[in-house]
Amino acid sequence: MLAASIFRPTLLLCWLAAPQPAQPEALFHSRDHSDLQLSPLRQAKPITDLHDAQVGEGQKNRITHMHEMPAAGAARAFSKKTLSWRLAREAPSGQLSLHEQRAIFTLAFRMWSEVTPLHFREDLTAPGATVDIKLGFGRGRHLGCPRVFDGSGQEFAHAWRLGDIHFDDDEHFTPPSSDAGISLLKVAVHEIGHVLGLPHIYRTGSIMQPNYSPQESAFELDWSDRKAIQRLYGSCEGSFDTAFDWIHKERNQYGEVMVRFSTYFFRNSWYWLYENRNNRTRYGDPIQIPTGWHGLPTQNIDAFIHIWTWRRDERYFFKGNQYWRYDSDKDQAHTEDEQGKRYPKSISEGFPGIPSPLDTAFYHRRQQLIYFFKESFVFAFDVNRNQVLNSYPKKITEVFPAIKPQDHPFRNIDSAYYSYAHNSIFFFKGNAYWKVVNDKDRQQNSRLPSNGLLPKKSISEKWFDLCDVHTSTLNM
């Protein structure tokens, strides 16, 4: 069986910087303020097949004596979605503490988990033969391996498809925080890619390039790496408890007030920030809700609304029969209102006529209405008069009719989301979404009904890399 290796560089190649996942998230008003500004470093045309990913601009730098992985047509992948790994007890590195080594490998596996449906868990107790991926360090002839390491020099590590990874302990491996030596994290991510079935990718910026690039404080998986691994294992699918745009205002250099936003997806006890300008999830996500949203319920949030008028700027989260108001300046939930009444409050108290628990809700800024969803009904709530409109509740199918017969969520919607990036309303249920017809759609096709639901599509086709990770890696 052939092994794939990573070698020293022939050219210094550029890697994109990203926040280190271990760092705590910044306050809301300190977060990304250019959510829709396209980053020129990350613009790339879509990959249509794996062959395109393999023959990019770095091919002329190929090292000819390298043992290649098989071509894409012969690629093999694991048949299961949860894989175990272990650093061999008899073969740790003599350069880093055991704790550092295990933490680095945990992070390396998590980086692949963030862009695939795969979960990785460290298993310290199962018989060695049952562990899916075993890692170890050695020098020269090592670990009964048929390949011999060359000492400090050309080969840093090698790996076998669906098998083991060996690191040459004659190299100077260093943690991600170091600017010197060889990044153990970067080499580990590369070799894990091979174990998962990826060949080398000859494209500048790819972690799967055969040539190692110099150590940097942080790096991330390239677009070509993500597309290649998803060709083998598919995209991440799943439902969401709620999705929303978080609006904030700031002044530019000319003193003009600018409106910026970031998009968030919540599922169970985790959340993701979606980078609209890059059309992908932020690296290092998901994060546990209490880490970034102080004072909210720790899981299973039903809905979010942002009442945004000339006189009001209020954000509310809903769960069960209660709701919380959130202070964006202090980055925490309010504990009491202006009259000293404590939060959380009952939904019936703050939003009379609205049933609980809710399925979802969204605020329609132009109409100044909140649409609350409960089973097969929708309630339109007037925020200025603080009451449900007289003609409501109505069937969801009446207010938001299906354009294609029977192509409709009908009831128990997971999330209703007004997207400022797309100027559209979306309904989520399970793995699917429905887009609500907007003014632009009707200008292009006047026969479309107002508020009609376009045929459903897969969430993963529009919002990329919203992936779960193994619970053991959530606090990284």
What does this structure look like?
The chain has 476 residues and is an alpha+beta fold. It has two domains: 3-234, Collagenase (Catalytic Domain) (3-Layer(aba) Sandwich); 242-462, 4 Propeller (Hemopexin), CATH 2.110.10. It is built from nine helices and 27 strands. A six-stranded mixed beta sheet has the order 1-5-6-4-2-3, with helices on one face. Strands 9, 10, 11, 12 and 13 form a five-stranded antiparallel beta sheet that branches. A hairpin with a 4-residue loop joins strand 16 and strand 17 (332-333). Helix 2 (98-113) crosses helix 3. The longest helix has 16 residues, at 98-113.
List keywords for this structure.
elongated; zymogen; single chain; Collagenase (Catalytic Domain); Matrix metalloproteinase-21; 6-stranded mixed beta sheet; protease; 476 residues; alpha+beta; repeat; metal-binding
Secondary structure blueprint with pairings:
Layout: E1 3-7, H1 50-54, E2 82-87, H2 98-113, E3 119-122, E4 133-138, E5 155-160, E6 165-168, E7 173-174, E8 182-183, H3 184-195, H4 223-233, E9 242-251, E10 257-267, E11 270-275, E12 280-281, E13 287-288, H5 289-292, E14 303-308, E15 313-319, E16 322-327, E17 332-333, E18 345-346, H6 347-350, E19 360-364, E20 369-374, E21 377-382, E22 387-388, E23 394-395, H7 396-399, E24 415-419, E25 424-429, E26 432-435, H8 439-444, E27 457-458, H9 459-462
Parallel strand pairs: 2-3, 2-4, 4-6, 7-8
Antiparallel strand pairs: 1-5, 5-6, 9-10, 10-11, 11-12, 11-13, 14-15, 15-16, 16-17, 16-18, 19-20, 20-21, 21-22, 21-23, 24-25, 25-26, 26-27
